Inverse folding.
DNA sequence: TTTATATATGATCACTTGTTCATATGTTAA
DNA sequence: TTAACATATGAACAAGTGATCATATATAAA
């Protein structure tokens, strides 16, 4: 069936649609929201975030821990910084990364809970 | 710098690494977890999930609401079903979709909160 | 200043992903 | 049965993503 832009049926529940429409975040925020959640959609980043939820770690520690290259790790940390998930402090040559706030931990825990319940 | 597999420095914090290592989810669960979180990383799916957190909706309603084709909607709903985020009941020709559990709503709310705080 | 090292970044490429088009399936009414 | 419609699915393609390689920057020690 080709898309005609709308349904050709009396089964469209217009009132419900109108009511629901109000709850949808503004278009401008949707992209930020998606970018934020994208960070959790990669196994490497999940490991990074979970690790940082336990302790701050330097780039070198993280590469060692995940067994990925320093370059790959640095790239990942950059994207995590860009969406405000992690912050870092510099101590000489070393950059210590940590979580920016508690949201990450909360989300990870809910996700883990979800997976466990689905078994 | 080429990756040599590990850091050539005394700045590796081995004890911290060992402690943190235990908290990382098992490899087998990491993929499920990533697939679960990936669902939140797309603006169309965020809209779908947010809408369903308010009310159950049929495929037709959802296409109308998001202004995307019925086909695209059906594909999205399929992937959402595969990771146990939504369920549906059939009433004649109509398929009414709804959230499978409360985790989705919780995660969306935390995400929205995160975005708002980052401003 | 020169060397070593910790981290960052740009370019590239294989792989993934979301949409579209075309078509199939399933259900109801005529 | 036939027509209409609600939903599902397969193939294909453009756009996005994560890792790698090469290289750059920054800091500390010699």
């Amino acid at each position: 069936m080709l898309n005609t832009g709308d349904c050709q049926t009396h089964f469209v529940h217009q009132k419900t649609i109108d009511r629901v429409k109000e709850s949808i975040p503004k278009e401008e925020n949707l992209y930020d929201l998606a970018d934020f959640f994208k960070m959790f959609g990669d196994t490497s980043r999940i490991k990074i975030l979970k690790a940082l939820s336990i302790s701050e770690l330097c780039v070198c520690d993280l590469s060692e821990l995940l067994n990925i290259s320093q370059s790959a790790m640095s790239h990942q940390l950059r994207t995590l910084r860009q969406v405000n998930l992690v912050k870092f402090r510099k101590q000489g040559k070393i950059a210590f990364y940590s979580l920016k706030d508690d949201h990450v931990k909360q989300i990870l825990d809910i996700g883990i809970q979800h997976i466990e319940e689905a078994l």
User: Anything to note?
Assistant: The longest helix of chain A spans residues 103-117. Residues 26-117 of chain A form a domain with the Arc Repressor Mutant, subunit A fold (CATH 1.10.10.10). The two ends of chain A are 36 Å apart (CA to CA). Residues 1-3, 58-60, 70-71, 73-75, 77-78, 90, 92-95 of chain A lie near DNA strand C (CB under 10 Å from a C1').
